[in-house]
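User: Structure with hypoxanthine, tokens only please.
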Amino acid sequence: MKYTYEFYKEAADFLLERFGGAPEVGIVLGSGLGHFAGEPEDAVTVPYGEIPNFLVSTAVGHAGEMVFGTVAGRRVVCMSGRFHYYEGYDFEELSIPVRVLKLLGIRALILTNAAGAVNTAYKPGDIMVIADHIKLMGASPMRGPNVDAFGPRFFDMGSAYTPALRALALELAKGSSLTVHEGVYWFSPGPQYETPAEIRAIRALGGDAVGMSTVTEALTAAHCGLPLLALSVMTNMAAGVLPKPLTSEEVIETANAIEGPFTAYVKDIIAHI
Ligand code: HPA
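Assistant:
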């Protein structure tokens, strides 16, 4: 079997040696949010291509490196560039990043992403703390022989998005200029944006925001018992809400426009974790 405990451990041991220490918090940076990778002090940067058994990022706007350093007094590792199903990876391969982060010794994982707002009470530039997700297509990253060292064969998803971290993020939102909601993230395989009819269906089924990432990482975190916070930046209204086509330029533009307050908000969360 390819995906053994030792497979992930080789990558983690390599990184621990390069970093010269263990991170306390891991953060995965979404589309247009990569500038957070400039935040760690005394940074050590390792390109993904140098890490044994790791994946290589192909998505536009994703740098493809691990950045280790200090943010808000905490040792943090940033994944600047993530891996998506639409790039051609199997769901099973998408277990690699979070399992490697787990073996680095992190105590909490923060996932960030760009998403389309399905809930019409949300606006571009708003944030959604993910309370839960819906993924009705495709396989699980935990499919195949179970790696017992990470977690059990069958595992609960009822509190995958750690309630205490969600409460912390909502509390800290009060001191931020951002509008922060809590809602349900719908996984869309991409790379096409959704059709207006799909968005109406997603809304009827309980989705508040839609995006092409995060759930494989959330499933992997839940399996290995890693406390998780996931934050979506509403970069656009979802398909059909406004009478205009969706473009990746709009997604990146909105993400860039809230870079300042979003970075401050995430730093505040890290300081309080
Ligand atoms: N749909 C899917 N993924 C996205 C969107 C969207 O509208 N915006 C940013 N990522």
